[in-house]
Amino acid sequence: MLNVNAKAFVPPTEVAPPPFQENIIYRYRIDTSINKYPDVVKDVQRLNNIPSLLTTRRLFAVKGDLDEESLRYFVEQNILPVANNPENENTSPSSGFLLSRTLLSLNVDMHSVFALNDAPGLLVRLDFPKEFGGEVNMPLNYAWDAFYSLVNRDHRVTAFGYSRSRIGVSSSKESGTYCHYFFVSCVDKKNDRALFSPAELSGLRAPVQRIVSVSSIVPFTCSYRTPVSVVITFGKKAKESLRSEMVADFSFNCACSFDNIEETYESLSLFEESFLDTLNNNCKWERTYIYHLSFDSDIPKEKSLVAVPIWDAIYFVGNICDDCACNIAGVSFSASESGVGVEQLLLRNKEAPFFVNATLSDIMEKKLSVDTTNTLFGGIPQHIRRPFSRPLHQLAIRAISAFITNKDFSFPKEKSITRKTFSDVANAFSKSTYVAKKKCIGTQVLIGTDSYGNLFGVEIDTLSTFALPDCFGGVASRIPECVFVAVLSPSYRNLMEYRIILQDVLVFQGSDVTDTPFSERWGYVESLYIDDEDSWRHASADHVVILRARHVPFDKIQDLLSPLPSDHCTRGLVFLCSTEEISDSHKAETKQTFLWTPPESISLFFRVSKTVEVADNDQVKKALLEVVDAETDKYAPYEDEYVEYYLSAFPDVKKGSIVECLLCRDENDAHWWDILQAFSPDAKKVSTYNEVDEFVHSPSVTQKEVLWLLNASSYVCERCGRVNDKGMRNERHNSYWCHFCWIETGHGDCVYCGRTFALGMLHEQSHLFYCENCWTCFSTWNTEAERGYHVPPPPNAKITQQVTTRCISLLIDMVNTKVPTNDVLDLCCGGSVVRKWMRNKTDRYLGIDNQSTIVDSMRESIHSSKELLPNARYNVICADVFSKDLWMETITKVHPRQFHTIACFSGLHHAFVNEEQARIFVGSVANALVPGGGFLGLFIDANILHARGKTFSNSIVQSKWEDSAVPRIGNHFTITVEGEEEREVNVVPMDFLIAVATEYGMTVRERRRVKH
Predict the structure, then answer these.
(1) What are the residue ranges of CATH 3.30.470.30 in the chain?
(2) What is the pLDDT of residues 702-753, one digit of tens each?
(3) Which residues are in the MRNA cap 0 methyltransferase domain (predicted)?
């Protein structure tokens, strides 16, 4: 009878072939899914052994001849389609194949079948890409050729083959850790370890991750179930809950404390030995066996007490399970906030089998497993990690003790360049030699090597440790015994690729170099000929590459400021002191490292205190922002500020979330926030109140100002040592002097004539600087003035104008020898006395009047006048003399410097409507006068009129006061002069005018009364 399971091999006779024939290999396909789940039920119908697998056709024979060519064709059919993406495989689902020297059939002597079922063997875990989409078929094909040649002629091997599995499957098709194995079945246990030597294994064209001895190797690898599932509990409550309904087959208790690195990893190593012994302990694997690993000690709740991150312990166990074709069925915690890192694991991995006080039956029913490649924790992507060897792990622990948890050592902090720190940065740049590099965005890590050049890493923030492949960019040989400070950042070429940028070196070839100046330390790094970050922008086949940062001197910094790709992971520039020793720069009081962030790239981290709905828009929500109070180390609202965001863009933002917000400003310097990224609680460090406040309320430093800082050394005053670009070279001393030193030595910038660094002195009252020439000008008068000339009044002038015109002429003659009159401002000019100023030989004249007809008439008169000096400049403008913006907006545009004399011969009383307006006018006049300058004013003495009664009249003038009016400021009276209309005049108190003028540094030179 023909056996359907082995019809290609059973001859058409009633006599069965012998169980073993030399050089004949029978081919069987393992027709089970690569996604294996735990199944603890021990049912006769579902037993996991070779007869059961043959019956259910999970293991079945494949047609073909028994020659080498047919075997090769069979192997290629099963290996070449293999990919870490099941959707790309055209063939039906399969998890591998079995090659046996024994015919496996239910119709032959079952002794050989049961002998193979019980035979021990070796499981070889291959170090192939374990992430989704990794290329494995061609390397796997080459590795199989080497493996086949190694075991084919060894008759101790009864069967061998290939299997694969996918661990940690979730709703995402890109999830899961892909594991690939070779396996061999041996004659007896004594021969299993003698099959292969390390030298022979080096012939495999793929690195071997681990070799494990397993009892009953064929059922172990060919089963549709997970042979062993590990369940981990943290805390006594989780342990009690797990055991409340079911009891695991095996258990191990890690008696360790997570604040003790050596103790924790020693316990994990003991677990590893116990677990591997379990796999080689005469189990037949007829069902899934449960292994319970418990940690009774509580996870510390303070980050400073955590030496071993929670994920590192889980990852350690997960790597063992991956190597042994097993899995972690679930992890149970005593509480969601039972320690540092627990809440992060639960929130960032919602589909992962992480539980709180779960029972064993609850975990088994979920049929899940931990995905060691895609679980999110800290800032290190799991797919670039490699498992540790024990010696390499010990080196990583030593690096943590020496450079991270050591209180005598700290990494240099970057001091932000802002308006507040600008002066300190300029002084630092002027006194020391600095180099610049791009600010790299990412996770800060330590990268180290052992004496053989094997790589390890430590995430500084979480203390998570990991191993790396040999991925130094451009280096052909191994780099032994070094420890570097680096940043892990994503490569913009691919989402799965990363670059590690070396920033500094702490240990070089076994020697501590932290006391060496930075320039010499960095020379060590450059001597290794590692490619720099600009020459290799993408990663390698290992998805990670190590490059060195590019440090440039100031004269080449323009290359770093050139435009970068929008997705390039840099943000500004970092300036390092190349002459400072790292041991000094690591002290808290020294700040030798500076960071410049472009204004458009400033982002800060906040904690969300709560989210609220936005009125009339159900698509937008508002998150209230919190920062860390540096004094209490607690969260506090930041000035009631918030950020609005689209719910569809950030659906997971809630109370306690960490958000990175971009600081945005408009042209009026108003600011708001935009969310860049959202993180789970504790995933990022929240900015302090002072950090946020400094960026919000201090204007950002522009690129142009950064370029100025690079030249700070050229602006160092050789007299006082200060940095100031407002200075010039002192030819006498042949050195650069700052602006302040020039002033201290009697030099300065004259505010009147504009000469810079001229010899002069400060005005005692205004503290303004004037040069010697201007001081001389202020103390001289017009000797060529035509004194005694009286400007004739206009032909139709009324008596008031006739009198004031004559009085003004006399007043100008009188003050000509007391104050300088070469530069005159005539307020409410009226046009009647401009000729007097011309006869006075005044060089510059500015008249202001609010009547455009008068202004036009004066301009015409000035233009046609023959009395004007050749170089004199006379101008008249139309403006409101008593408006608020007259001095700053109107006068400064046509006359930007001070006046020798300011006159107001008519309309002065308009400035005395009230005390406030009067003070503004007098103060403006005082500020607009040069030292020694004079103010000429003409007004009616209200005290004399008021003394003559409420009403007074004579043949020329009539005055009238209200009953409650007094001759004080804020009051007024009416006056009528012969031939003129009645007008209202504000009181100008003489004593008030003199008192206010004195406050502003003016004194009375002359006071004359004109009696009618």
Answers:
(1) 390-598
(2) 888 888 888 888 888 878 878 877 777 777 777 888 877 877 787 888 888 8
(3) 795-1012
CATH class of 799-939+988-999: alpha beta
**Global pTM value:** 0.68
Phi first, then psi: give them for residue 688, nearest 5 degrees.
-80, 165
What CATH superfamily is the domain 390-598? DNA ligase/mRNA capping enzyme (3.30.470.30)
Q: What residues have CB less than 8 Å from 787, skipping those under 6 apart?
A: 813, 816
Question: What integer pLDDT is reported at residue 20 of this predicted model?
Answer: 46
In words, the CATH class of domain 603-699 is mainly beta
Residue type, 523: G
Beta bridge partners of 610: 624
- Please, are residues 777 and 820 in contact by the beta-carbon 8 Å criterion? yes
Rounded average pLDDT over 416-439: 86
Element (H, E) at 737: strand 735-738
Return the SS3 of 903.
Answer: strand
What is the C-alpha radius of gyration for the chain, rounded to an integer number of angstroms? 46
- Kindly indicate the confidence band of residue 98, based on its pLDDT and cuts at 50, 70 and 90: very high
String of DSSP letters for 287-341? SPEEEEEEE-SPPPSSGGG-SS-HHHHHHHHHHHHHHTT-EEEEEEES-TTSSTT
- Cα gap 547→531, rounded to integer Å: 5
Domain with CATH 3.40.50.150 in the chain: 799-939+988-999
Instruction: Write the pLDDT tens digit of every residue in 131-146.
Output: 888 888 888 998 999 8
CA distances from 652 to 112, 742, 817 (A): 59, 62, 83
Query: What are the percentages of helix, strand and coil residues in the chain, rounded to 5?
Result: 30, 25, 45
Burial class of 1012 by CB neighbour count within 10 A (0 to 12, 13 to 18, 19+): exposed
